[in-house]
Design brief:
Residues 27-51 are annotated as: Disordered. Keywords: Repeat. Pfam families: PPR, PPR_2. The chain has 452 residues and is mainly alpha-helical. Among the domains are: 1-121, no CATH class; 372-452. Helices cover 69% and strands 0% of the residues. Helix 13 (199-212) runs antiparallel to helix 14. The two termini are 38 Å apart.
Length: 452
């Protein structure tokens, strides 16, 4: 029987997880009749055959495999149960938490609660995962109820409360977070009576308004912190500098930076990155580079984000060769470039051969392109009408074990339609539809089908 392992998992399995281990799982599932999804009690493992004995099944292996099934919750459950019954693996709090996270991602909250009840031990991460998944599904009351129920496991404390507030602010339910913390929600007050609503809570809410891009509310809340006597710390200033920079007022971010220095607040790399970005936009890239040097002199080591900001500023000013020099300097300083580093340069390059050379350099340096990388390059070449580099990038995507998503397919199909290759475009359109991906409605393809 054919082994049903998704194509883009092959390289992962080969490098991290024993293929025979995965083969055993898929074979065992393919021969079993379908049964209701459940989490049976711990089972005694079957008698192990020699192949089983040669395999090391530990928490790392289980977590890696569950990561592969992040987008297939049913297969994740099957694997979760199978490794327990087949190997007698006693799931850890970490593997339980990962399984709960996958279930929550697909709104399978009843099953997540079954697993929560079955766990021998829960921790704050368990409930942080539950809060995150409830709030990301906009089930705010359910997240609050989950916090209240955490008391059954002796986890209804300030840490869990802060995790709840953080989840609300992360997923743009800041109004509810502010209501719970500062507006004294009468139905919730007894749950938080002993907690101090200090700088940490205010910073979370300020960051929440920032994520919602409600700039006026950010300013109002910044002023409210002073009225409420809240001590603004490094993180408060870092968030509000970002607010000013992203809202189109970088000079105000620079002013805040100077205010911090007067107050004697020692900046960390995150704060420096924010002000380097702001000063680069308002006063120019050379001033930003000088601030980067000052940062190093003061003992704050730049990170990959710092270099990415400088490279992006240089590229936006047409100084691509200097951007390449910064890229070389990163390698010498043992600050490994990431995908975003290369994206900054890709965006400003205008010669296909130069782009493909940088793409090869990226891979040779051990930086794996993301799906966004492939989509960006396919769109770029497609706009220019160059199909050969489009297919070079497409082949590299497949060679690296990545299964194209709807954005990659649509970028390729757009390029083919633009060049009048309707039959080939239609084949890729049908292929993506067969995978359950959403295709754009293209009159050229519809018309062609009618003509047939």
């Amino acid at each position: 029987m054919h082994l049903l392992i998704p194509r883009h998992f092959h390289r992962f399995f080969t490098s991290n997880i024993s293929p025979s281990f995965i083969h055993q799982f898929h074979t065992s599932q393919s021969t079993k009749p379908s049964s209701p999804i459940s989490f049976p009690d711990h089972q005694t493992p079957k008698t192990l055959n020699p192949d089983h004995q040669q395999l090391t099944v530990n928490q790392t292996t289980i977590l890696q495999t569950l990561t592969c099934y992040d987008n297939d919750w049913k297969r994740a459950i099957e694997f979760f149960n199978w490794v327990e019954s087949e190997y007698g693996f006693k799931h850890t709090t970490e593997t339980y938490n990962h399984m709960i996270d996958i279930l929550g991602k697909f709104f399978e909250f009843d099953l997540a609660h079954q697993l929560l009840d079955k766990m021998p031990e829960r921790d704050h991460t368990t409930f942080r995962v539950m809060f995150k998944r409830y709030v990301s599904a906009h089930l705010v009351q359910e997240a609050i109820d989950c916090y209240k129920n955490s008391g059954e496991y002796n986890l209804k404390d300030e840490t869990s409360f802060l995790n709840l507030v953080d989840a609300l602010c992360e997923y743009k339910h800041v109004i509810e977070a502010e209501e719970l913390c500062l507006k004294k929600d009468s139905n919730f007050q007894d749950n938080i009576a002993s907690f101090k609503m200090g700088t940490k809570v205010y910073n979370m809410i300020l960051r929440g308004w920032f994520k919602m891009r409600w700039w006026g509310k950010c300013r109002e809340f910044w002023e409210q912190m002073d009225k409420d006597g809240i001590n603004k710390d490094l993180y408060s200033y870092s968030i509000y500098m970002d607010v000013q920079s992203k809202s189109g007022k970088p000079w105000k971010a620079v002013k805040l930076y100077k205010e911090m220095k007067k107050k004697g607040i020692k900046l960390d790399v995150v704060a420096y990155n924010t002000v380097i970005q702001a000063i680069g936009v308002s006063e120019g890239v050379d001033v930003a580079v000088n601030l980067g040097r000052e940062m190093v002199e003061l003992g704050c080591e730049p990170n990959v984000v710092t270099y990415n900001i400088i490279i992006k500023l240089l590229c936006e000013n047409g100084r691509v060769r200097e951007a390449y020099k910064v890229l070389d300097k990163m390698c010498k300083r043992k600050c490994v470039p990431n995908v975003i580093t290369y994206h900054c340069i890709f965006r400003c390059l205008e010669k296909p051969n130069e782009i493909l050379a940088l793409f090869d350099r990226m891979i040779e340096n051990g930086v794996s392109p993301s799906m966004d990388t492939y989509v960006m390059l396919i769109r770029k070449f497609g706009r220019w009408g160059f199909l050969r580099p489009v297919f070079i990038v497409w082949k590299k995507m497949e060679d690296h074990g990545l299964s194209p998503n709807e954005f990659a397919y649509n970028a390729l199909i757009d390029a083919l339609v633009e060049k009048g290759m309707i039959d080939m475009a239609r084949r890729y359109d049908e292929e993506m539809l067969a995978k359950g991906l959403s295709a754009k409605l293209r009159p050229e393809l519809v018309k062609g089908e009618c003509d047939d």
